[in-house]
Amino acid sequence: MTLPPNVHDAEPIPEAAKEAIDALMQSGDLFRYTAPQDAPVALLEAEFAELLGTKYALAVSSCSAALFLSLKALGLPRDARVLIPGFTFAAVPSSVIHADCIPVLCEVGENYRIDMADFEAKLDSVQAVIISHMRGHTSDMDAIMALCDARDIPVIEDAAHSLGTTWHGKNIGTIGKVGCFSFQSYKMINAGEGGILISNDADLVARAVIMSGAYEHNWKKHKGPHGDNSPELEEAFVRWQNKLPLYNLRLNNLSAAVIRPQIPELARRVRDGLANHDYVAGRLNTSPHIDVPAPLPPEQRAPDSIQFNLVGLQEHEIRAFAAAAEARGVKVQVFGLSQDNARAFWNWQFLPETFELPQTRDMLMKACDVRLPVRLTRAELDVIADILLAAVGEVTGPMPVYGT
Fold this sequence. Notes:
- There is one protein chain.
- Helices cover 37% and strands 14% of the residues.
- By secondary structure, the chain is α/β, with parallel strands linked by helices.
- It folds into two domains: 16-264, 3-Layer(aba) Sandwich (Aspartate Aminotransferase, domain 2), CATH 3.40.640; 265-396, Alpha-Beta Complex (Aspartate Aminotransferase, domain 1), CATH 3.90.1150.10.
C-alpha cells in the first residue's frame, strides 16, 4: 500500500532567505523603523506593490490586521454595517467588530461564491463591503463592483487565499478599494504569520500606515514601488500626523526576510497549484457523489487546496466518508460538521446580530476541504484521489479506482 503524502508541511523557505536572516540575527535589527531607509519590510512593501501593480502596500502582522486597518482607514462611523459573505473565516467578522462596525451576512451558493440576489437585497442597508474570496473562489466581481460603485459603497477584498488569482487578467486584490493578503503558513507565500494591504488611495493608505504604528514621522520610511512617496501620499501623511490612534500592528524585519525570497517563486507555485487542483478535480468528478465546482469564466485560480461537495449523501454518510478517508490517511474537513469550525457562521456567537442563511448552511454541511500543497507529485495526487474515491465508494457502493 502506498502511504498518503504529508499535506501539512509547506514548501521549504528559499536558501536566499537564510543569508538575510543570518544578517538580521547578527545585527539584532528586527524592528522595521530602526534602519534609516530600505529596511526589509519597506523593501517588501515596494516589491509587493510592484508585483500586484498598485501604488501602495502596507505590511502588517496578519491579514486580520489588514482588514481591520482597512475598515478604520475608511473612516466609517461607529456601528456602520459591513456586508460580508456567510462563508468565510471567523477573522473576517471579528475584524469588523474590532473596527466598531456590525457584520451583515449574505448567502453563499453551492459553488462557494456570493449569492448575488441576497447580496443586492442587503446592499442598501450597509456602508461597506468585504468580499472574501474564500479558499480562493472568486465571486462575480463584475456584478459586485457595478452594484457597489452605483451606491458609492467601498469594497475591501479579503484575498487571503487568492494571491496569484486573476479576474479578466486583473489581479485579485486590485479590483476593490483595498486588497488584503495573508502570509500565514497555509498560503502561497509563507511567513508563519503576517499580512499586507494594497491600494491606490493615498489618503486611505496614509491613515492605515499611521494607525499601523508609524509614530512620529516614521511614515517617511514607507516607500512605493518606485522609491520616493508620491506628493499626494506625503500630503496625506502630513494631514493625518498626530490625529489618529496607533494600534501597533507592524510586521517585523525577520518576517519580511522570510517573505521576500518567495516572491519570485509565486508564478511557479500558482502554475503548479492550479495544475494539481485541476488534475485531482478531474479524478474526483468521475464520481457521481462528488462535485468540484468549476471556476467562473473570468477567473484564473491559484489554489493550494481543493473543495468539493458531496452529492446525494445524508449526514451520517458524510460523516462516514470523512472517517473512511481519515482512516486511509487523508484528513477531510467538512466545514459544517467539524465541531466549533471557525468557518461555520453559526459558531460566530460573538456577532451582535444573528442571521438565518439556509442556503449557506446547507452547503457547509456537505462541503469538503482537502489540502493540496503545490509541491505534491502526480503520484502523490493520485494517492489522495484514490483514497477519496475509495472512501466515497465505501459509503455509497464500490467505485472504480484509477491511478496507483
